[in-house]
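Researcher: We're teaching a course module on how sequence relates to structure. For the next exercise, students receive a sequence and then see the predicted structure as tokens, so they can try to spot secondary structure elements on their own. Here is the exercise chain.
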Amino acid sequence: MIDTEGILQMLPHRFPFLMIDRVLEIDEELTHCRAMKNVTANEPQFTGHFPGKPVMPGVLILEAMAQTCCILAMKRLPPEQTAEDKIFYFAGIDGVRFKKVVTPGDQLVFEATFVRERGGIGWYECKATVDGAVACSATMMCARR
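Model: And here is the predicted structure for the students to work with:
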């Protein structure tokens, strides 16, 4: 498990754009990562999306999924490379599907599964769930720089 302090050491994101609260697990083969976010009513996006009926913007769910991919990508770096000298950029997304509205009080669980890597670009199958129900799924690409 990686707490917020550990995440801050791995990702360049900071509040209000750090979208994951905790990494729940990374498997021993470094092919699968689970992370989570507690969605709270006091987050800045809810003042405008939508007043009186707060809904987590899909683009922020996708960003959290990308950050989960980045954590897995950082863990997959060879020992001679360090997270301090690497950054991963969101390079592409395919097959996005939104299945469930996410609102304050929900806990999002993100899963990223490594598929392949070529030329510094990694492909990941991702999903975000709330109470076991899929809220969003996508194939994501992250580029190492």
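Model: If you want an answer key for the exercise: The first strand starts at residue 22 and ends at 26. The two ends are 26 Å apart (CA to CA).
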